[in-house]
Structures are given as C-alpha cells and as structure tokens.
Amino acid sequence: MKKIPVGVLGATGMVGQRYIYLLANHPYFEVVYTAASSRSAGKTYEQAVEGRWLIGSDIPEGVKKLVVQDASDVSAAKGKCRFVFSALEMDKDAIKKLEEEYASSDIPVVSNASANRWTEDVPMLIPEINPEHTDIIAAQKKRHGWNKGFIAVKPNCSLQSYMAPIFALIKAGYPVKRMIVTTLQAVSGAGYPGVPSFDMIDNIVPYIGGEEEKTEKECLKILGTVRNGKIENAAAPVVAAHCNRVPVIDGHTACVSLEFDLPQKDKPSLERIESVWTSFRSVPQELKLPSAPVQPIRVRHETNRPQPARDRDTDKGMAVTVGRLRECPVFDIRFVALSHNTKRGAALGGILNAELLYAKGFFD
Amino acid sequence: MKKIPVGVLGATGMVGQRYIYLLANHPYFEVVYTAASSRSAGKTYEQAVEGRWLIGSDIPEGVKKLVVQDASDVSAAKGKCRFVFSALEMDKDAIKKLEEEYASSDIPVVSNASANRWTEDVPMLIPEINPEHTDIIAAQKKRHGWNKGFIAVKPNCSLQSYMAPIFALIKAGYPVKRMIVTTLQAVSGAGYPGVPSFDMIDNIVPYIGGEEEKTEKECLKILGTVRNGKIENAAAPVVAAHCNRVPVIDGHTACVSLEFDLPQKDKPSLERIESVWTSFRSVPQELKLPSAPVQPIRVRHETNRPQPARDRDTDKGMAVTVGRLRECPVFDIRFVALSHNTKRGAALGGILNAELLYAKGFFD
Amino acid sequence: MKKIPVGVLGATGMVGQRYIYLLANHPYFEVVYTAASSRSAGKTYEQAVEGRWLIGSDIPEGVKKLVVQDASDVSAAKGKCRFVFSALEMDKDAIKKLEEEYASSDIPVVSNASANRWTEDVPMLIPEINPEHTDIIAAQKKRHGWNKGFIAVKPNCSLQSYMAPIFALIKAGYPVKRMIVTTLQAVSGAGYPGVPSFDMIDNIVPYIGGEEEKTEKECLKILGTVRNGKIENAAAPVVAAHCNRVPVIDGHTACVSLEFDLPQKDKPSLERIESVWTSFRSVPQELKLPSAPVQPIRVRHETNRPQPARDRDTDKGMAVTVGRLRECPVFDIRFVALSHNTKRGAALGGILNAELLYAKGFFD
Amino acid sequence: MKKIPVGVLGATGMVGQRYIYLLANHPYFEVVYTAASSRSAGKTYEQAVEGRWLIGSDIPEGVKKLVVQDASDVSAAKGKCRFVFSALEMDKDAIKKLEEEYASSDIPVVSNASANRWTEDVPMLIPEINPEHTDIIAAQKKRHGWNKGFIAVKPNCSLQSYMAPIFALIKAGYPVKRMIVTTLQAVSGAGYPGVPSFDMIDNIVPYIGGEEEKTEKECLKILGTVRNGKIENAAAPVVAAHCNRVPVIDGHTACVSLEFDLPQKDKPSLERIESVWTSFRSVPQELKLPSAPVQPIRVRHETNRPQPARDRDTDKGMAVTVGRLRECPVFDIRFVALSHNTKRGAALGGILNAELLYAKGFFD
C-alpha cells in the first residue's frame, strides 16, 4: 500500500514534534511536509529544532531534511499533502482562520488546537466515544462550500482520562448526573518552554488557565448528538473541575467522584462497573485502527495505582488506566483515572482521529 | 521567667527533629530530655542523628549533647520534664500503651501520633477550633485515676488545610452539609525515609495508606461537643477525600468543593465568605500564644495561588492560605487551601496545643 | 530455536525486575525460574511484587505465575535453569558464598552484584571492551574444581558512561594518563526503596557510599590483561571521581577531563577523537549479539546534550552518548558522557554478558 | 540613624525581587525607588509583579505601593536614591550603557549584571576576598569625569561556592596551581521563567551558556591586584569548569579537585586546610557588616554534606559550606563546596558589596 502524504502544521512545537515522532513508521501516513512560523521557514527541520528536539534522542530520518514551510502560506501545501495535522501554537483567532484556509484549499485539517472546538459543525472526536460525529462534516462542507477540505478536532487533554470511563458507563445504561473532578496534570501539556522549573520543583500550581472551563464544557459536546446540521450538546453530566499542574513530564491523573442519575436500586455495583469498563470496546477496535488500544480502559487493583510513571504508556499510551474504584461517601463512586496527555491526549489521539476519518473514506 | 523543662519522645525521627528545631528558642519551653528507640539510647543526640539531621544545617546547640534515652523507659523521664511531646513512630498499640504509661507517671503527653486520637476522652485539638475540648481532660484523668498526667493529641496533617476555613464558616452561621476534597500532600508527611524518590520523580502516587479514612472521620470529632465525659462527634459535614502524594517537600494543598446546609437564599456570597475567613480569630489569638498565627486564615487573590513553595511559611507556617474561591457548578463553592504539614500540621501545631494547655494551667 | 531456560536471583528487587522485564521476549533466553529472599518464597511472582512492580505497567505474562523460590536453596534451581542472572541484594559475603554455591552446582552465574568483582579469576566484563577476559573462566573452574559452573560479573554502573569512550581512545593508540570524573547519578542505581524523596526534591546529595572507590578501581581491572590464571590490572589511567546523586530516574551522566599519556605532538585532535568514537565497533557488534548496540558510542553536537531524559534510551539503552567534546584548560580534553544505568549499566549489560558467554559456548 | 534611600533597577525580575525582599528590614538601606522595563512602568510594584511574585508569600509592605519607573529614564531616579542596585535583565551592551548613565548622573551603581565585569577599572567584589579593589573606583571616576557616581559589580554566582575556600588557602600561603571544577547549579540562577520544567523533571542539563567561561576567567580578576589605575588579573589558578543545571531551586554545589603550586613537602595537610578554612575571617567580619556571615567558611564532617536543601541557608545564606575534604588521586585535594546562589551569589552578595562601600564612605 502506498502511504498517504501528510503535513504537520506547527511542526516545531512540542505537539508538532510528537506528531513527527509518532508518524515515523505509521502504516497509513507519511510526513512529507512540515510547516511552522516564518521564523523557522526555509530551514531544514533539523536546523529548525536544533537544540530543542524534545522527544527521545533523534529526529526521525525521513523528516530531518524536509525544508520547513511557512504555515501561513497555504498554497505551499497544495498538492503536497492529502491532509494536515494542525498543532499550531498561535493566537486562537489566527488558528481558526488559518485552519479554514487550509480546508478551503481542499486540504482537510485534523487539529489539535482549541480554536475550532466550538464551531458547531466541527466534530470534536474521541473515536471510541463519538465516531458518528463525523456525520457533521457534510454539513460543514456544505456551509463553507468546501469540496474536499474540512476540519475535525480533538478535545482538551485534561478530560481524556475520565471521558472513556464515563462514556462506557453511560452507554451501559448508567447515566451520570454530576461529577467533581480534580486533575493533576503533567507539564508537557503546557508545551515548551511551558511551565518554568522554578514553579515545578518542590511545588505544585493549583491553576491552569482556561482548563477548568474546557473540561467542564467540552464533555457535553463530545456526548452530544448530530442533529439538523449541528452537534447538540448533551445536558449532563454537570462537571466541576479543579485543575492542577504537578511536576510530572507526561500523564494526566484525575480524581473523580460521581453521582448516577438513577434511583438507588438501579445503580451499578462496583463489580458491574469494573466489568463495564473492562469489556468496553468501540469502533476503533472494530476497525482495528493502528493507533487504537486493544482494550481502551484498563482497570488496576493495586491500592496505589494508576501512577503516571508506571501506567501512562499502557497500550501504546492510548489506554486509559483506572484504579482505586470505591464507594464515595458523598456521591456514588470515586476512582482515579489516568491517560497519557501527549499520546492519547494530543498527537496520537489526533492520529487516531485521522485513522478513523481515513477508514470512513474522508480523505478519498 | 524560668522555662518549663520538656521532653521529646521519638526525637530522632522527622517530626521529632522538627520539635527540637522549633523549640530551640521557645519562650515557655526548653528541651532538656530526648528519647527514642533503644537503638539510639545512650548516644548523644548529635550522634544519634548523624548523617540524617534533616531540618536546616545544624542541630540546636542546647540539644546536641543531650544523651538520648530509651523512650520505653518511662522512669528515666520522671522528674526531668514537666511534660513530653510525643512524636513516637512505632506500632500504634505500642504508642497508645506507652503514652498512657507516661501519663500515669504524672507526665502529660502532647502527642502527634494517631494512637490516641479515637480515645473518647482524649481531646484532639486545633486550638483555633475546639479549645474547649480541653474540658474533657478532667474526665480522662478521673477514668484512669491519673493525677497530673493526661494525653492530648492533634489531628492528621491532611485536614489542617481546610478545617479552619470550614470551621470559620460554620461558626459564622453557614453549616456545611458535605464536601469533596482532593489533597496533594507533601512527602515530609510520610516521615523519613518515607516515600522513595523513585516514586516521586516524574510521578505522583494517588494513594496514602489510611489517610482518606482519617480525613473523613477526624473532622467530625474536632467539630464535636464535650458532653457526659465524652467528645460526641458532629454529624456533619460528610466528607469524601482523595489523598495524593506529590513531589513537594512541605505543604499540603487541598482542592475543596462544598455544599452548605442552608436554603439557597441563606447561602453566603463569595464576598461574605472571604470576609468571614479574613476576620476569623479565636482563642490562641486572644491569648496571644507565641506560636499562634496573627491571622489564622489568609485569603489570596492571585489566580495561581496558594502554592506550597510560596505560601507554606505564611505567619510562621501556622496560617492556612486560601485562594481560588469561586462558585462550584456542582456544589455551592470551591477553593484551594494550603497549610504547612510539618509546622501547622505537626510539630508547631503540637507546640501550639502545649501553649494552650499551659495557658489554661494544665501543666501546673 | 529452543530457548535456554534461565533463572533470576533477587528477582523481586529493582534490578531483578529489570531482568524480568528485559528478558520478556529475548531470542535466546527464557525466564523459567525466579528466586528471592525467604520472605517472597512460595508466593507467585505477581504476589511477591504486589504494589511494588516498578518497570512499566505490567509484569510479563510468562513470569506472573511463576512461584518464587528461596534464593538460598540452590538445589531448587538444579535442573531447572541452564544458568542464572544474579541480582541479589544481600550482605556482600553472603552473596559471594551463594553465587559460588550456584556455580559449584553446575549453574553458571552471570552477576550484577559487586561481591565477586575483585576475585582475581572472575572476569568483570564489558563485552565491547574486554571480551577476551572470558578466557580466565577456565582457570576459575579449575581452581574450584567446578565442572559447568562459573561466575562472571559486570562492573559498577557509574563507570559505564565513560569506559567505552576511554577504551576506544586507548585502543586507537591514545593512552590516557589520568582523568577527573564527576558523575551525576540517577536514583534507580540505588535500588528500591533506595534514596528517600525527601533527599531528592530540591536537592542533590554529593555522596554515594563506596561508589568513588569502585569507579576508580574497577576501571583498571576492566582494562587489565589475562595472564597466569589471573587478571592483572592495568596501571593507568589514574582516576579521581566525585559521585553525586541527582533527581533523575534513569541515566548516569559523567563530566570528564582527561590527560593523554603522549607527547603534545602525538595527541589526537578533537576531530580525530570524534572519528575514533563514531567508528568504534567491537566483538558484540561483530557477533551481532541481540542486546548489543549497533553503534556503541554516539557523538552529539548540540551544545546542551547528552541529557538523561533525551539520550538514555539510545540504541535500546545500550549506547553511550558523548557530547560537549572540547579542549580542557587544565588537561587535554573534556566531555560529557551518558549511559542508561539500569539498561547498559545493570540488567541489559548483564544480558549482553550472557549473550557473549552463550556465543562463546560457555553454556553448552 | 536615618536610612539611606536606595533604588532597585530591574526590580521585577527574580534577582530584583530578591533585593526587594532582602532589603525589607535592612539597617542601613531603604528601598524608595523601583525601576524596570517600560512594560512595568507606571504600575504599582504590586501590580507589576502580579501573579509572579516569587520570593515567599508577600511583597514587603513598604514596596507594594511604589510606582515602578522606567529604568531607562535615569532622570527619574535623580534626587530620589543615593545609589541603585542593578539587577537589570537586558542586552549586555544596553546594561553597560545604562549603568554608566546612572553613574554619570551622580548615582552609584552596585550591580549584579555581568555587563561591566570586564571593565578594567570596575571592581568585581567579594568583600571577604578583595575589599581593597574598591581603590580602583577613584581611577574609574577620574576616567569618566564622574563626581559621585561609579560602578561596582559582583562576580558570577557559579564561582562563589569555591572562591572563598580557594582564597583562604592562597592567603594562608598555599597557592593553587590549577583546579577542575564541576558545578551542579540551581535553576534560580537562570532567572524567571528561566529553565523549562520539561528540562528539569527527571533530567539534568550539562550546559549553561557562558557559565564555564565566566567561572574560569572571573576568578583571575577577583584574585588580581589594583595597579596603575587597573585591576591586573592574577596568573593562577588555571580553572577548568563543567557547569550543569540540576533540579534544585537554590544553592550551587561545586565538586573541586585542585593542585597546589608548592613542592610536595610544603603542601598543607587536610587538618591544616580545615583549620585555615574554619578560622578564615576578613574585612566584612571586622567591620561587622550586617549581611556578612560570622564565619565565612563552614566545614562539615558528615559524609553526605553539604547538600543544597540543608546547607544553603547557613549564616543568612552568606556562608560557604565545605565538606568531603579528602585527598585526590590525581591532584592534591578534592572537596565539595556549596553557596546560596541568590543570596551570597546574587542579591545578598550585592547588598554586602553596598555595605562595604558604605562603610568605606563611598556613598557620602
């Protein structure tokens, strides 16, 4: 099979580097195009990230010598790549505009950025949860008059650790009324240079700008329904989030207490919940997408797990690990969930989105 | 004024060292006696902690040359110290028995250990919250037939960061029905050697043995009432705790969401809450106890505070710092609270207890 | 090919776990036997490491259900494994005695422990440097009257980062007269629980017991010569070591200044040195041993490399990465070298030793 | 005594904040003037550092409400402050020019910046080592035609940990020929935001731009001699430095191996060296300058000290702590030295310089 040529926008930033790294031997896609700010444009990729390549020791061979293009020059990408991954780090409005320009030039955009997350005909995908949201793309194309181009996004990394467990419960017939979530988030989520080390040695920071709002809101779009050319948000669960930055490189941990929207007698037992999680499978598993975890939710029984350093890389860094499932004196249950924020929560999650779109024929 | 001679049991452990350090120039008390396990007994204090003195660079001069006694030999302490601070690190039953032996030998015990926290006539003191719980001591003495001896304890360090804010609200007429608390706790809380560095570099551990149970339960005794020779627990708030160990040396942070037990119209505004906290004063402030903070609850307005590294030492490490007060989409309010776990939460809290007991004449 | 059944002694400790993990899909060897202290004996491996499995999320499937044996019961291993990896963590004399018992029972011991490093007929192997030291095994067997059993060891992890670069220079005709080395060593080198986190957050410890002596001395045996049934130490280089513990999980870094034992005119240029390093290959590469790095010494040109987090995993964690090669105002040259202390420096280094011994027919 | 009004240039950066903090209750000096970039100008100091006050919990009361001035507007400072501390963080040439403008406006500059360190009539002071270098100020004033203004600087923080021990030995008659130094430097030395946390969690960086050159060169000016209107550099010792960034907040550690320039028989014993260090006193001690340590060099005997977390605050953070003094197999002796980089090595060192200049009448 001939691989599909793809581009990476924002290729020199931390998430961009992750894309480059993870796409190195991808069975479907091949990075043939990199673009970044005008500062990097014209340099080889190797030169552009000189002294700040952050993912392992070496840049993948195939990308080292690619000449970085100016991301704002959409025409340069035309004819070179079938679609682009967007890991742009710019002003939100600028990203929105630029991603739309790519789409209008027949270049679909699979984006990691938040700029288009709230556009109501842009799907915000977690392939295990809402693969059918790709149905909205037709409406999106129609609205813009785009031919082949479109935009699909992924949600914030902070909610990836608990969305799959929540969704699995909802899908199994246990709707969640409300939940209180406290996250302990890794520094890679802030990009590079990101959080100063002066703030992360012998310290935590109980605040991440914009994160709590995203976590509380994006949840509802992901659980929403495609109807009348829009994605209509779900009404529940109500989420209250406390987001903290902690001195961890990769892996977001979430402490969750939740209440079911069910009469007491219909609430699931802890055993039932574990069984729902362990057996949860979805479209990416059925389609055997290459980046899909075999088992999306892993349950651990050790008292002190999940831990970022031990569990983040489970199943290619794409599984969510859940542990400490127990009753909650205030709500119904509580547990700890963990996912790899730059794999599942960013670049590899974006790649999985692209794999889903590819499997559904959106890049044909 | 002649200082009162005091002893420190468990003097070589981390909390014991903190006591030695903090009592160095205390206006009331002077450490004249140190005791630890039989392994240390007979050595000078300096020799006993050789290579593992953990608090600043130097052992206080007055203690260096004291010969460490065997803590299990209660008779050695008789006549030497008016009371002892207990920072014993042994099996719980052994601590309970030993603390009672000291008390029965006319040596009051101001304890940091958890062994006697649930004895129903032992006060578990936070002097700003329940100073009147010292009233139970008479019943305790009577039950045991003790003359001068008695036991008073302090609660677990994990709840110190939010107990004062909660209590201030309750006292101001805003009872709390229930709360969900997630703590990010410092490694010094686990003593020394404590948590392995292999678990605390690029990692957090979402579990601390016994901590959640303590946090959920001790709260109710502290808010309880002395009645009929017992401390009767309060009925509320119901607490659900998620306790995490994070790579911070000192300073426990708590993310709190809480619900008032009030009709909507009677719930306090955020402004009112801040005002309650800022103006909160109690017995230790009235008595001007030397280790009491001038202002027990400090409110910060920066979006990213409190932080352990910046705020733990506020007001001698005895103030609780609260920040990020905001509405909670699930309950009524949420906030972040922080206190110094080895000062307010352990040794200096114990010293404040002793100062209260002293001021009330319990050591006469 | 049928795999050779092997055992791991000290299987529950940190290095033992590394062996289990790294041998999971080894082409030659299969772990069929695990042994540890009597405390673990009788439990399944999974039970024995419950709550303290430290290497990734899961224990390899094939080992989970093995019943851990008492390492001191040599007879239990007989007939079960062709040889054993020793990762024993006991008193040195006890290890020495026990390893000899295994050897005398026809079970060769490939050891990670320091107990037998200074036995003069025990080879201390780094396969790229002194593969011919296996010649001493015949003398060792003869002295003890052993038949199939023997002991081979690996050196301390602290010198692995600079030994290969030094050796490559010596072999290329540039003898080293003396060198001053300062190491920044990872906490995994201290085992588990190892270094307390209280000492490794916002701190470094400029001392590692016994490490400087090992580093200074072992170097000379490794560079020594097999003669008259002994390994005779090399006379140079003279090494002065400063060993520090730093808050890094894996990867020892060494800052090296060295002086050649050559007239000024014969000293190599920096270019020549780089070329010597880059082209260095040895017996493991020729034999294509499965754990051997393709290129044992990697040279980097970025000003700020090597760094543990970026470079430790280069070439399966078996390559040494060298950077910052530059002239030294005091000696001739200086550079920074880095190797993975629990892969190259411990378990995978031990496995490479076993692969060499296997390739040479020592397990037949 | 009425306090001398002083200003702080670069008052909002990390070193500037340290000055503000440390001058809070200074017996001689009072901060009445703060200046920073034009971005901060016009705001109160409190507003200007909102959300990034880094030194303890609170800004000193007296400074909170000062309106920050534009540092480039020298005229604004005239008449307001008797002298200024410069903690400017700008382009080096711009700093040089600006510091000279202040000096030419009759405002002496006590600088932390490196811009004027190599001006040959600017003294680079460590008051315990070269207090007589203030003699050069007359020549400096004369060259520029300045009246009251002048510039005095302090050296780089990296060498402060070993300069005092070296100087004490030289002064006692034990000249040092050459030394190899490896530093483990704290992140506060890089200012704020400084080193990204992504580089300092589970990692060290074996490179600090420009640091090795400074360490190797500044040493010689400090040990130099005022002659003919210049400071003539010393010829020895020759220094080779390896500078590393490690995950420590404050406190630079140096591992030093050194060779005396003496015949073997005249070299000092370890006992003699310790005695030289312990008894070392100098001009700041004689003058009882308020920020001077009582004992400039502290020697520790524990095997694992000095450590940043334990020893950096010794004697107000102004003492150098030395430990692990032992023989060196390559040179004569080796040891570990530690100093607080933002107290002794930056702001408090600058304040001590000002105290010396004040005591000598330079601000009259």
Describe this structure in words.
Chains A, B, C, D: It holds the Pfam family Semialdhyde_dh. Chains A, B, C, D: This is aspartate-semialdehyde dehydrogenase. Four copies of one chain form a homotetramer. With 364 residues, chain A is an alpha/beta fold. Helices cover 28% and strands 21% of the residues of chain A. Chain A contains twelve helices and 14 strands. The longest helix of chain A is centred in the C-terminal third of the chain and has 17 residues.
Mean pLDDT of chain A: 97
Q: Can you tell me the CATH architecture of the largest domain in chain A?
A: 2-Layer Sandwich
Shape type of chain A: globular
Strand content of chain A: 15-25%
Oligomer: homotetramer
Distance separating the two termini of chain A: 14 Å
Q: What is the count of structural domains of chain A? A: 2
Which CATH class of the largest domain in chain A applies here?
Answer: Alpha Beta
Quick description:
Chain A is an alpha/beta fold and 364 residues long. Chain A has helices spanning 14-22, 45-48, 61-64, 92-104, 137-144, 160-171, 211-222, 270-279, 283-286, 308-311, 314-317, 343-359; strands at residues 4-9, 29-36, 69-70, 83-86, 109-111, 151-153, 176-185, 225-227, 230-232, 238-245, 252-260, 297-299, 320-327, 333-339.
Task: List strands and helices in order, with pairings.
Four copies of one chain form a homotetramer.
Chain A: E1 4-9, H1 14-22, E2 29-36, H2 45-48, H3 61-64, E3 69-70, E4 83-86, H4 92-104, E5 109-111, H5 137-144, E6 151-153, H6 160-171, E7 176-185, H7 211-222, E8 225-227, E9 230-232, E10 238-245, E11 252-260, H8 270-279, H9 283-286, E12 297-299, H10 308-311, H11 314-317, E13 320-327, E14 333-339, H12 343-359
Parallel strand pairs in A: 1-2, 1-4, 2-3, 4-5, 5-6, 7-10, 12-13
Antiparallel strand pairs in A: 7-11, 8-9, 11-14, 13-14
Helix pairs in contact in A: 1-12
